[in-house]
Amino acid sequence: MAVKNIKRSLNMSEEMHGLLLQLTAKRGRDVTESDIIREAIREYLDAQSDLVGSKRHFQKSLQARLDRLEAILTFQANIQIYLLSALFESDANDALAEAIITAKRDGEALLAQIRAVRDLEPST
């Protein structure tokens, strides 16, 4: 499918045009005034969070999805903690405190071990 270009004209002050010419001269021979105007419009559109195709909209919707996933994972982790603590019944508080302390102390080493195992290639 052929790309259809739409032409628009715009008015600008002499001062704006002078700045545009300076930018064009700085960017080199391969960059035109139209290129810079298109780039400025693209950056402006990308910064608009309420436009569906903009980068800002994507970032905002991605952040919302990550927040939902974090809430779900936190909820599920809490359920697992309560289920595990129910197994210990009388020592639940002590077992939970010990697990938190151990995870805080050894968490980085455990994550490093997990990464090392994950990075291993399966032997053939």
Short synopsis of the structure:
The protein is mainly α and 124 residues long.
Describe this protein's structure.
The protein is mostly helical. The chain has two domains: 14-46, no CATH class; 58-119. It contains four helices and no strands. It has helices at residues 14-27, 33-46, 55-88, 92-119.
Radius of gyration: 28 Å
Based on CA inertia axes, which overall geometry fits? Answer: elongated
Assign the structural class, choosing from mainly alpha, mainly beta, alpha/beta, alpha+beta, or little secondary structure: mainly alpha
Please mark out the parts with pLDDT under 50 across 5 or more consecutive residues, or reply none.
none
Helical proportion, percent range: over 70%
Number of helices: 4
Averaged pLDDT: 81
Strand content: under 5%
User: Helix and strand succession?
Assistant: HHHH
Number of separate strands: 0
How many structural domains does the protein architecture include? 2
Query: Main beta sheet, described?
Result: none
Could you give the distance between the termini? 46 Å
Tags for this entry?
single chain; 124 residues; mainly alpha; 4 helices
Write the layout of secondary structure elements.
Elements: H1 14-27, H2 33-46, H3 55-88, H4 92-119
